[in-house]
Amino acid sequence: MTDTRTVGVLGTGIMGAAMARNLVRAGHTVRVWNRTRAKAEPLAADGAHVAGTPAEAVRDADVVLTMLYDGGTVLEVMREAAGALRPGVAWVQSTTAGLESVGELAGLAGEHGLVFYDAPVLGTKQPAEAGQLVVLAAGPAEGRAAVTPVFEAVGARTVWTGEDGAAATATRLKLVANSWVLAATAATGEALALAKGLGVDPQNFFDLISGGPLDMGYLHAKAALILEDRLVPASFAVTTAEKDARLIVEAGERNGVRLDVAAAGAERFARAAALGHADEDMAAAYFASFDDKAGS
């Protein structure tokens, strides 16, 4: 095979659209589909073909990339698409899904003779647009030549976690990483909310921890979104953060681990969504500390 592929991308939200654009820029032939077609249409100007159905998007593909909301959505969409795929096609499953869902998706791949790669990504909108994601991947070594050019187009680094995609070793690592990201996001919002409630200038807090072990770039990045009212467009939406938090809690429960912070985080994201912040950046969990959308 050459270094260019025909790639069917199913799901063109914040992450999927950016990944599709980088695939086009790398010289791949890209066909995209999204349930809400209007979200996929702008990709035509970048050189992607916008398909009307999942089957149309994956027909003649060498690689299929799924980047949808959750595992259940991926299963539904791939059941529509699978009949148009020839055996041996590589399926790169990049949606953050639950451990049980990954097993179901791998089973569907097996039924249709597809080569399954569990390949969630670490990163949000900006690194996705820059092609700087970290790809966490698990799947058979003998088929990696087919998917490596795809990973190189969307990411700066690929971390291989195993050769059995069904074992979800990549998704397991992604859930651990996301548990830290979501906890840090919630903690940032709570610190700023407490500062507001106590009449403390947030800059005094930042100055206090500056340069020490408690300081971190992520704190400043998320705090700036809140303090400067730059929560739209979202890098990672509140609703998606809630979904991931619940997947993390579920994974812990299934493996005998109680995750109180993740469970509380899921409820904070849910409250923020109920206050009207569902589609804003996940930093908007800040507003869950107050009784109205304005955060007063």
- Return the CATH class of the largest domain: Alpha Beta
Q: Helical amount among residues, as a percent range?
A: 40-55%
* CATH homologous superfamily title of the largest domain: NAD(P)-binding Rossmann-like Domain
| CATH architecture descriptor name of the largest domain | 3-Layer(aba) Sandwich
Strand order of the largest sheet: 3-2-1-4-5-6
Give the end-to-end Cα distance, rounded to a whole number of Å: 59 Å
The succession of helices and strands, N to C, reads EHEEHEHEHEEHEHEHHHHH
When the domains are counted, the total is: 2
The pLDDT mean sits at 96
CATH fold node name of the largest domain: Rossmann fold
Strand content: 5-15%
What gyration radius follows from the Cα positions, in whole Å? Answer: 20 Å
Q: What is the overall silhouette?
A: globular
Overall number of strands: 9
Q: Report the total helices.
A: 11
Which ranges are low-confidence, i.e. pLDDT below 50, for 5 or more consecutive residues?
Answer: none
Helix vs. strand class: alpha/beta
Task: Describe the 3D structure.
With 296 residues, the chain is an alpha/beta fold. It folds into two domains: 6-167, NAD(P)-binding Rossmann-like Domain (Rossmann fold), CATH 3.40.50.720; 172-289, N-(1-d-carboxylethyl)-l-norvaline Dehydrogenase, domain 2, CATH 1.10.1040. The protein contains eleven helices and nine strands.
